[in-house]
Structures are given as structure tokens and as C-alpha cells.
Amino acid sequence: MIIKTIIENTAISDKFQNEHGLSLYIETNKHKILFDLGKTDLFLENAKKLNVNIEDIDLVIISHGHYDHGGGLKKFLEVNTRANIYINKHGFEEHYSKRPTDIIEEIGLDKGIKNNSRIIFVDKYLRLDEELEIFSGVKNNNLLSKSNNVLLMKEEGKFIKDNFNHEQSLIIKDNDKLVLIAGCSHRGISNIIDKFIDIKGEEPRYVLGGFHLSSPSYKKSEDPSLINEIGRYLKSKDTFYYTCHCTGLVPYNQLKDILKERLQYLSTGTCIKI
């Protein structure tokens, strides 16, 4: 399996432009996948530099209904004419963020493309084929990031904390390996891994994605004690981790002290084979 980081907050060199967002190109035995599409159409430029032909992508998965993961969707639909887009059924609902100034801004997806015929809405579980499964419905509330508290939704016209029912993750069976791909892990990376184990009956060999341990708007990271607890949980699994985006560099370095060589960082331009 080949994975290329098309969009991430950082970049491996000046050759690539970066933005706050995420987009991963994943090439399996059967598929050429984009997992998320970043904040803008910048993914197109970086894809060319990474020798990824957007027209060849056969499916897209949007991890959740935030603009920094699905902002490139409109442009993708213009360039690619074949791929279906898999979004959770709650993905186009209104999602908000309370900024440090107390202003509440909408951070959701472009509703103008909601009715596109290539968008497929996913409930709590979907098996695409023998390689791919999509799941949501994570119920556990262990080791959650406090930065989630400023992420909101509306219920009966009032702002409440987002329940992240719109967040979904991807399972890939690659020969004898099971791989878990997450977006921001708003539901908690430990809870998402636990749900994976419930579904598959075993631990993932690899986990890739953001762990949501920092807030760029508030310029702060999660409490070190929470990061340590998450690190201990991750260490208890027979798993190798690649993280990025909303994990943040300070929490990454703290987790790196715990996980050592079992944790690596994905910047824009990073290419790996697992």
C-alpha cells in the first residue's frame, strides 16, 4: 500500500504548499483513494508534484463535515468524473467553531454540492468490498480532547457541543495487514481504535490520522497528562502509528517520547509504503 500526504499543516520542503487541513492519497491493490480533500483546491497542485492523477481516483472518503477536510470537494468533482464520494449522512449538517473572540463561525461543508449524484451518504457502517470498510457510531467517551468543547452544532435552534456523529473512519485490508485511517479523531483515537477492534476482532497493524490534541485557533495543546494517557493506550497496542494535522507538533513530540520509533509524522509531500 502506498500513501502520499497531499495536504497537511506542514510540508517536507518548499516544493510543496501546505495549509491547515488534510488529504491523503492511498493506493491499494484495487483502489486509488483520496481520504479527505483539504481546505481549498491546493490538493490539485500538490497531487501533480506527487505524480497523483486526480482523474484516476476511483473513490473519495470525507472523514467528517469540517471545511478543512472537504473544502476541495467542489473542485474535485469538476476535475474527476468517475469517483463516488462517501460522506456520513450527518456530514452536511451545520457545524460551528467558537473562536477566541467568542464569535461563532460556521465550519461545515459546502451545501451547494450536497445533491450531487456521486455523493453517497453512509450510516454507521458500510462494507465497500473485501478491502474497504467505513464506520462511525463510536460510543465510548474516553480520553477526549477538551478542544472539542468549542466545536458546536445546532439543536432546536440552540448551539450545543458537537456530538461528532458525522465523523467516520476507514478500514483497509491490505493482504495480511489491517490499517485504520482516521481524520481528526474528534471521538478520541482510543475510542476509534476500540471500535475498530469491536468490528474486526483484532488490533490494527497501522493507524494513520490526526489525533486532535491541539487547537490552532487558541494556539494551545491538550494537557500533558491527557497526552500521556493517550500515549500509554497507544503503546499498549501492537500497532505502528503515523499522525499529522490536528495532533500538533508539541503533542507529537510528547507522544514520540512514549512510542519511539512506532510513531512517525506525515507532512505534505511525505510518501510511505506499508
Give an account of the 3D structure:
- GO terms for molecular function: transferase activity.
- This is Beta-lactamase-like protein.
- It holds the Pfam family Lactamase_B.
- Residues 20-211 form the Metallo-beta-lactamase domain.
- This protein has helices at residues 42-49, 67-70, 73-79, 189-200, 224-235, 249-259, and strands at residues 2-7, 23-27, 32-35, 59-61, 84-88, 95-98, 104-106, 119-122, 125-127, 132-135, 151-155, 158-161, 169-174, 177-181, 206-209, 214-215, 220-221, 240-243, 263-265, 271-273.
- It has one domain (2-273): Ribonuclease Z/Hydroxyacylglutathione hydrolase-like (Metallo-beta-lactamase, Chain A), CATH 3.60.15.10.
- A seven-stranded mixed β-sheet has the order 8-5-4-3-2-1-20.
- With 274 residues, the chain is an alpha/beta fold.
- The protein is globular and about 45 Å long.
- The protein contains six helices and 20 strands.
- Strand 11 (151-155) and strand 12 (158-161) form a beta hairpin.
Summarize the structure.
This protein has 274 residues and is α/β, with parallel strands linked by helices.
- State the low-pLDDT regions, or none: none
How many domains comprise the coordinates?
A: 1
Q: Would you count the extended β strands for me? A: 20
CATH topology: Metallo-beta-lactamase, Chain A
Shape: globular
| Chain-averaged pLDDT | 98
Rg computed from alpha carbons, rounded to a whole number of angstroms? 17 Å
- Report the helical percentage: 10-25%
Report the sheet-strand fraction: 25-35%
The main β sheet shows up as: 7 strands, mixed
Order of helices and strands: EEEHEHHEEEEEEEEEEHEEEHEHEE
